[in-house]
Amino acid sequence: MFVYTPPCYESSGNAKYPVLYIQHGGGEDERGWALQGRTDIILDNLIAAGKAKPMIVVMSNGNCKDFT
């Protein structure tokens, strides 16, 4: 599981943030959004530009190992 936290997260004390859960596409795992999609870079830039609110993003591995 990968979890993105905004740049202000460490210094914000008890602040509450919205949480966005995103799943990868078929044939990928939880690293897809972070490594290929550059989630952290894009969100850092959008937050700095005031185009997105600070948020936590959870990227989990939704693959099922056994379909039986």
UniProtKB/TrEMBL annotation:
Native source organism of the sequence: uncultured Paludibacter sp
Source species, domain of life: Bacteria
Lineage: Bacteria, Pseudomonadati, Bacteroidota, Bacteroidia, Bacteroidales
Record-linked SUPFAM superfamilies: alpha/beta-Hydrolases (SSF53474)
Pfam families: Esterase
Protein name in the entry: CAZy families CBM48|CE1 protein
